[in-house]
Amino acid sequence: xxxxxxxxxxxxxxxxxxxxxxxxxxxxxxxxxxxxxxxxxxxxxxxxxxxxxxxxxxxxxxxxxxxxxxxxxxxxxxxxxxxxxxxxxxxxxxxxxxxxxxxxxxxxxxxxxxxxxxxxxxxxxxxx
Amino acid sequence: xxxxxxxxxxxxxxxxxxxxxxxxxxxxxxxxxxxxxxxxxxxxxxxxxxxxxxxxxxxxxxxxxxxxxxxxxxxxxxxxxxxxxxxxxxxxxxxxxxxxxxxxxxxxxxxxxxxxxxxxxxxxxxxxxxxxxxxxxxxxxxxxxxxxxxxxxxxxxxxxxxxxxxxxxxxxxxxxxxxxxxxxxxxxxxxxxxxxxxxxxxxxxxxxxxxxxxxxxxxxxxxxxxxxxxxxxxxxxxxxxxxxxxxxxxxxxxxxxxxxxxxxxxxxxxxxxxxxxxxxxxxxxxxxxxxxxxxxxxxxxxxxxxxxxxxxxxxxxxxxxxxxxxxxxxxxxxxxxxxxxxxxxxxxxxxxxxxxxxxxxxxxxxxxxxxxxxxxxxxxxxxxxxxxxxxxxxxxxxxxxxxxxxxxxxxxxxxxxxxx
Lengths: 128, 420
Fold this sequence. Notes:
heterodimer; A: alpha+beta; Sufe protein. Chain: A; 3 strands; B: alpha/beta; Aspartate Aminotransferase, domain 1; Aspartate Aminotransferase, domain 2; four-stranded antiparallel beta sheet
């Protein structure tokens, strides 16, 4: 289990990047993982079709919070059209830890919230 | 199995373990410490064999055939009902209805008794300890008939506020009190006999969720004087897919059927139908006979060990666990300390989410439940989003507890030292 809780995961969990909210965001969306009650909200400021600012807030397990933190670093400043192509596998690759089937939704909650807010895609990101 | 040879209040848990083939396997390459019996128990070889033997030697549909196999199947089904009636000391086995599980049993009462007896202005009393299965069916029927729902709160230790129950009953509008006998989350054993007495004095009936009590302690429906009592096979070393609703005879006889169709009829005409007698009136369709046989063997298995021994074993293990867990830094334990606590230990640790706790425990071969335990109102009342929960049963040993405690220490070594 030490594998799952590698240093970078714990670092993002305990000191998350881009944690907080945006005053008057262009996009805001919040969702929960009904299985465990993990909750994530993502606020976005958009400028010239790019993510000019991103903040997330919420509470939940280390995997969901660290994953959301990593996601915000990944997409900050990126083109919205490019972010749309981000897949579940991209997030799992970025986390670089062995995620068991029971924990996949924890890892993907941030991506789900981002895609629901930015593109209206409310389905869970598909995994291979 | 010859547990009778043991002294009255002890039994050899190693010997019990030997009856449960699944406990011999490993989990994540470690010894399996199965501490999630409050969710579902493991099954002894005796139960597995009984189901196998039913399908190998006795399978046929019940009630209908005159041929030998159908007679055999019907006889086994009736015998199973008799065994269940003896388990809870029901006056008549026809008062024991086979259903799929506790949830279905409560839905049956809420829909059948509720639709017939509840009206606008009536009050349904629930408790803050309830599992969703004893909340949602009542919410739905309350909405349909215009009844109101009130909750009996808990005190800081997790015991029911009996003063609130008395106050609610004094209003005179309470028609039903639906309460758990043992909280699946806190382990609180509620004073069911006292609740029943108070409710009856106020003209209300009592529906007991006994899913967490029947497997672990002697439950006597006549002594409790409870009106309805529901439990599941899979939480008492029996199969999944079978449960029991006990009801008082006059209530059951006055109630309309819940589901309709085959088996539950006396006569079907083109424009109307008359109902079968108890228990068939409430058992529409082909029942799960193999699972009824399985739950009966499970009941015999537990009775042979003896509920006094089971209870004592669980108290010993729970106290052993609480004593060690209490010493762990950052630990918060829930539930009452005392005689009125079953073998359930819910906890949270500062800086570690319950799902992370459960994942780390899983890596050490320790199976616990993490989440809201189908008791979201209770989670909000405790001001937590989730807890981790270990629950103990006949096959658990101090070795399981030691494995749990050591794994929880691993949680702290991963999260605890870093918490700022």
